[in-house]
Write a structure and sequence with these properties.
Number of strands: 0
CATH architecture of the largest domain: Orthogonal Bundle
CATH class of the largest domain: Mainly Alpha
Helix content: over 70%
Mean pLDDT: 87
Low-confidence stretches: none
Order of helices and strands: HHHHHHHHHHHHHHHH
Number of helices: 16
CATH topology of the largest domain: MetI-like fold
């Protein structure tokens, strides 16, 4: 009987799959993309456990176990890069995360449809600008000698500020550029969540005499709380990841103490010095730490009564 029931269940599954065959066919390119470009290259992770030689290849290089990890963990520059990565990511998150929510709430309150669309387009635009261009703009604005901001400050009688040559000011400049570039793009998800808040709640609150600020605090923000928590968890899970473009293009030899992050360190080790085993080991370590942070943040969110993502 059990065998017959399993056969019948398998047949029903086949019938359902056949009924939705076109959906599965549409899904095939996506599956092939992930198999070819995501899963198949994962064998390259073994380079982290080998004395990799480009002439011998991945399969021909000898295994060395954890020797590569021991080597990178004993390097002070590696831990300095990790510290800088956490500092920049945490600072950028502390500034950009609440600002993104505030901007989303402000956009949601705009009544004029045309003005709202124009404002959104202007805010989205910096996201599509290359970091090469952004770094060029930042250089023209913030340099000591010919920067526009320092030129204005000097005309007003103030001393020029070393935005790009002082470590503290460089972090400030990095965060400002990052926020300007990505804050508009980050509002998309929040605006979509705000569109799903029940309008009848606003009407009931209005009839009860609630002010616009009270409606914002007691209806709008709680209505998107789950989205806020989810986005916070996802952002926290990226604490060990940072783009190569911004630190590399904005950084210089004077601020290497704070601009040398995990991505630039991996670039110098792997591309410049051709130490492929070490760069792969760093990348693997980075991914593992990100997963641990993601799981920990998710567990913490569930512990305080919020919905997690895992």
């Amino acid at each position: 009987m059990k065998k017959r029931s399993r056969i019948e269940e398998f047949r029903r599954t086949l019938v359902k799959a056949w009924n939705y065959k076109w959906i599965y066919i549409m899904l095939l390119p996506v599956m092939l993309y992930f198999i070819v470009f995501r899963y198949a290259p994962m064998y390259g992770i073994t380079i982290a456990f080998k004395d990799y030689n480009i002439f011998k290849g991945v399969f021909g290089s000898p295994w060395v176990g954890l020797d590569v990890f021991k080597k990178i963990f004993s390097n002070k520059n590696f831990w300095s890069a990790i510290k800088n990565t956490f500092v920049l990511n945490l600072t950028a998150l502390a500034v950009s995360f609440p600002l993104t929510i505030i901007v989303s709430l402000m956009l949601n309150e705009i009544a004029g449809v045309k003005f709202k669309k124009v404002t959104q387009s202007i805010l989205y635009l910096p996201h599509f600008i290359s970091w090469v261009v952004v770094a060029g703009i930042a250089t023209n604005l913030f340099t000591m000698q010919e920067g526009s901001i320092n030129a204005v400050l000097q005309r007003m009688g103030f001393q020029p500020i070393p935005f790009l040559s002082s470590e503290g000011w460089w972090i400030f400049t990095y965060v400002i550029c990052n926020v300007w570039k990505e804050i508009g793009w980050g509002t998309i998800i929040y605006l979509a969540a705000l569109a799903g808040v029940d309008e009848t709640l606003y009407e009931a609150a209005y009839l009860d005499g609630a002010t616009k600020f009270q409606r914002l605090c007691y209806i709008t923000v709680p209505g998107i709380k789950s989205v806020i928590v989810t986005m916070l968890i996802l952002n926290i899970s990226k604490m060990m990841s940072i783009g190569l473009d911004a630190p590399l293009l904005l950084g210089n030899s004077k601020v290497m103490g704070v601009s040398e992050v995990i991505s630039t360190y991996t670039y110098r080790i792997g591309i410049v010095k051709a130490q492929y085993s070490q760069s792969t080991a760093i990348g693997l370590f980075q991914s593992v730490v990100n997963i641990i942070i993601l799981v920990a943040a998710d567990r913490f969110a569930k512990a305080i009564g919020e919905e997690g993502i895992i």
